[in-house]
Structures are given as C-alpha cells and as structure tokens.
Amino acid sequence: MNAKYALIGTAGILLLLAACTGSKTEGYEKVRIETYPLDGICELTGHRYSMTASAPADLVVPLSAAPLVVVCSTESGYEGRE
Fold it and tell me: Among the four residues 18, 47, 50, 64, which has the most C-beta atoms within 10 Å?
C-alpha cells in the first residue's frame, strides 16, 4: 500500500513543479518522471499533447500542453493519477 501512495505522490509532485512555471504558454519545460516500483509506464496528456514514457524518464514538454494529466501504472499492479 505504501508503494501506491509513493507513486501517486510522485505524480503529484511533478504536476506541482510544472505549475510553478507561471502563466508562460510558449516554450518547453523539462519534467522528470519517477515511479516506485521502478517498472512504471506513464501516459501524459494535455492540450493537443500526449506521450507515453517508461519511468524513470527525463522529458521535455511544451508549456502549451498545460494542464497535464499524468497516469502511471506498474507491472506489479500499482496505478496512480494526478
């Protein structure tokens, strides 16, 4: 159960960090995705944007995609959404 909360917490922290960019809509922002357990697959969706990545991953996301929804799941069965 603790791993589930860690996964959800990680996704939440990523979204909060992305929100710290302010009202900028042009350009790109670096985003780090991590899950615990480490075998996570994450789908990022936003305004005219979607991407699937294996965690851990360093991604570059267009600011125009905000707000982003991040959904991660692991082979071990954990799933989190932020």
Answer: 18
